[in-house]
User: Fold these one by one.
Assistant:
Number 1:
Amino acid sequence: MHKQIILVDDHVLLRDALATLINSFPEFNVLSVASNGIDVIKAIEEGNIPDIVVLDLNMPKMDGFETAAWLKNNHPDIKVVILTMYDSEIALIRLLQAGVRGFLKKDIHPMELKNALIAVAENGYYYSHQATGKLGTLFKKNNDAGNSIERAFLTDIEIDFIKNACSEMTYKEIALKMSLTPRTIDNYRDSLFDKLNVKSRVGLAIYAVKNGVVTF
Amino acid sequence: MHKQIILVDDHVLLRDALATLINSFPEFNVLSVASNGIDVIKAIEEGNIPDIVVLDLNMPKMDGFETAAWLKNNHPDIKVVILTMYDSEIALIRLLQAGVRGFLKKDIHPMELKNALIAVAENGYYYSHQATGKLGTLFKKNNDAGNSIERAFLTDIEIDFIKNACSEMTYKEIALKMSLTPRTIDNYRDSLFDKLNVKSRVGLAIYAVKNGVVTF
DNA sequence: TGAAAACTCAGGTTTTTTCCTGTGCAACAA
DNA sequence: TTGTTGCACAGGAAAAAACCTGAGTTTTCA
């Protein structure tokens, strides 16, 4: 065995600590580490082909989504495991479509990381119980509402709006900044309240923080 | 040398990874790890006396503040280093008073962790440039306003209010829950807006998240 | 190609938030 | 004692947020 792993996280301390931990697993070896998607691509194009890439979602420059998509298109044989702080129910399906093989939260036990890596290396897939649970409720929610799965996603504009809503701007100012009418902003807000099941702008901001839509 | 360290963090993965990393430093050895302050006390009372305790701030049961205070009172010879996600300017002075020897953010480079541990072990103190910078502006802010240092802190009620403000409750509902009049709630809000330099409830919530007043 | 969905915009109303200027009381220090 | 400070509370007003119903235009896709 001795599967090769590339570790991608912009938190250097956590990343290097994880690298040391993973290297202590006899089955795995950390081939290299990176701070963002661009560095991963660079490493891979230089010939460092790993078996598994362990990806953080929130990174500057090129985040987990983009990196997962690039890997799927250019190296479909490389398996991708997501390791994130947030229980991003929004992110899950999008990641599934990007061909991600595993989804883990950062508050797991080290043994679960090891098990997940082994499962992905051998069987090809690993989803934590938490993740599968989320998926279940997510599908259920959409079926109940009679919506298609696509509705569960956030569009780029919605994400942009949410980020702006997590500030001290009024909706009028947000409208100006986004080159939209306040009325349109109203609609984005209302549909997001409905879609994300929140009741106020603060609730929306909290949701955004919890799910890693915004980071600080 | 070979200083003994106890590592305290409720994120098991990060904690164990850090333990592996620190054990790779020839100067240090991880004596034991813990998920909260209570477990640290247990370990120490069982005779595992470390040279340094590396503490996360936000933990269930007994957080970094309480644990640091207990250590200062019961084992003043043990040095305390804080390792946190947040640049808690609120927390800094409080921690200084609790006799904390070092303050680090989790997004540092592993080498800075090593240097910090060495500095604390040898000289007794280490504060990152970020932290000292924060301290400077904090002192400056208070001098400018002609306030005493104490004013920089948040009272228990203020923290309670902030936590409630980071929800979908209206102020009326918060007032009910806190057994205060809506008018009084208004005053807490206004004085916090002024004290923390924010302009809206969303701004307050964002501040709270950034500084670890609330966690998710 | 026709129906469904997404995107943009509108008027009007109610509720909530934010801001303003005040009062009374208790604790505490000069 | 007096003056400062913290704390709880008040009325009123302006701004913002939230909620309602509606409609035209484009995109998507079956």
Note: Residues 36 and 61 of chain B are 7 Å apart (CA to CA).
Number 2:
Amino acid sequence: MPKRATIQDVAREAGVSVTTVSRYLNGRYESMSDRTREKIADVIARLGYRPNALAKGLKAQRTQTVGAIVVNMGYPFCVGFLRAFSRALGAEGYHLMVAESEGDARRERQLIESLVANRVEAIALQTSGANNDYLEDLAREMPVVLVDRAFSLPHAYAIGTNNRDASREMAWQLFDLGYERIVYLTEDERGIPTRTERLEGYLEACRVALREPEVMRVRRGDASSFADAIARVDAEIRRGRRTAVYSANGLILMECYRALRQLGHPVPSALGLATFDHPDWADLVDPPLTCVRQPVDEMGEEAARMVIARLRGEDVPEKTRVLASTLVMRESTGREQSARIGRDVSR
Amino acid sequence: MPKRATIQDVAREAGVSVTTVSRYLNGRYESMSDRTREKIADVIARLGYRPNALAKGLKAQRTQTVGAIVVNMGYPFCVGFLRAFSRALGAEGYHLMVAESEGDARRERQLIESLVANRVEAIALQTSGANNDYLEDLAREMPVVLVDRAFSLPHAYAIGTNNRDASREMAWQLFDLGYERIVYLTEDERGIPTRTERLEGYLEACRVALREPEVMRVRRGDASSFADAIARVDAEIRRGRRTAVYSANGLILMECYRALRQLGHPVPSALGLATFDHPDWADLVDPPLTCVRQPVDEMGEEAARMVIARLRGEDVPEKTRVLASTLVMRESTGREQSARIGRDVSR
DNA sequence: TTGAAAGCGCTAACAA
DNA sequence: TTGTTAGCGCTTTCAA
């Protein structure tokens, strides 16, 4: 492994000073003879010289790098967000360091610290909520964007969607479409605003519609935790009640989708199916799946916009952006139609 | 944005030298009084001091960071690889910088250069093949792993799967299952080894089985490019021939899946469906989809293992790893069964 | 057990 | 138009 050439090497070879090379590297050709410029260009090419961004960052106190922590890069939400975020940042010359927390608060904390150690200029993360004090401190010194799980911290930015409204609206629609029962599938919602809000939206709809809520808590990866829910759905339908399964996210519906279909009840007439998230398989299955589509791309772009504006020194007074989701009604609940729920909000 | 505390600040506050603080930071407590250690710990906590990894990296010539470039973070293959790679690296204390090339050679080149500028210690990438000369040069100075599209460069590592064998085997199976025609769907394969090998595997099977190959080239995002393929399938079946659609990757099958099903031919009796890749919707659709499952996780882990070993200074003589894919036969082609194709190979 | 000082590769103020 | 030099925050050698 030969050592990489440095600016010193280039300067020596070209017979000029490092300052001149530095000027060249930063495109300040105006005060430089053509001959010098060509000489430097030659040497750089010959030596395969690449500037050291570490040294540059150390000096300039800027790394042009932003950090992102998501729960799991495999989740559609996370992938979608990361892609949009990374694209928007890349367009402004920023790099992205990505890490996965697996939803573990301790790991999340370590990851944040190590991003800080690497002097990322901003951090976007889907936080567990357990590091909020630390994040609030951090947010005083650098842009911090809480994504998806939008806890409210005075100095941090937050980007989320109108979970409660969208969830309430979806449940309303389902009742409206004639489902007598809605079995709501969720993972343990405690401490996770997103899940809590979606659940509350559902509960509100039940209250208004004067229906008994039916919340089934499942654990991903644990098939037995789904068995109860599936049995419940089966029982309701056998009792002659049109029943809809409404899932708090696409992954848990995915885990029980087959089993639900294998009950054999006709969809959508006896059994309705709806989920938060817009999994890529939503319109491959038959009948196509009703979903709440979150504006993932916009969330990533918006996060990048906030970060970039702040790093440019601009004022970004709206700390919180709540983007509107879209109800995508498909044949799995009977009728086709699609509508944005409410409007985007900044505050 | 207050300036972050430096090792100098800590030293001053604690009334010791920076050397001592540095020793503390690196856990060399053996030559340090307990009092000193406690004092330093206090000050660090009070100041919220975080070491600057840039300065450390500049001095140590090590950044503990690895770069990865994939075509698109949304592709199942890329996500799977990135996750496994990132996990394995994280376990060894490495960070990951991720970027997307969108399959564009120029952009890929820029990304590589900027990863180099950031002094990543190794690079794993799914390359277009257009930067092979540059990559070969680079591979002389740092570990470079070509993933998936495993071009053979003397100094670079390569990790791929046995595309040709798996593809041939899949086609054989399909003929064996009684499909008279296999319509092969692919994107333009020129210059992309993965696609070329898969196509060749299919062509070999046709040759051996004495069947006319039927290759349809499609372009993702361009519905009209799929229309021909779909019409062709329809025509064959109407002519009374059992026909299978075999797709070179999951994304292109996804784009035409609905349209194929809407032809109305019974699956698997008249129409068979099979694809390379193992999309997450493969067993949600009805009937479940026959696939060639690549060992994505192992590829990520293996890439990390190679990189880490090399960075530790160990010798890694096997430059190339070809991992075996698995044929997952499901009801979309009639019979359920699954088999690994061949064995993993190192050389 | 502790510290002084050189130096990693770069930028920019100042000087020529 | 070009160069000298201090310093970014850290590690490490050498000395005390």
Note: Chain B touches chain A through 51 residues (CB under 8 Å).
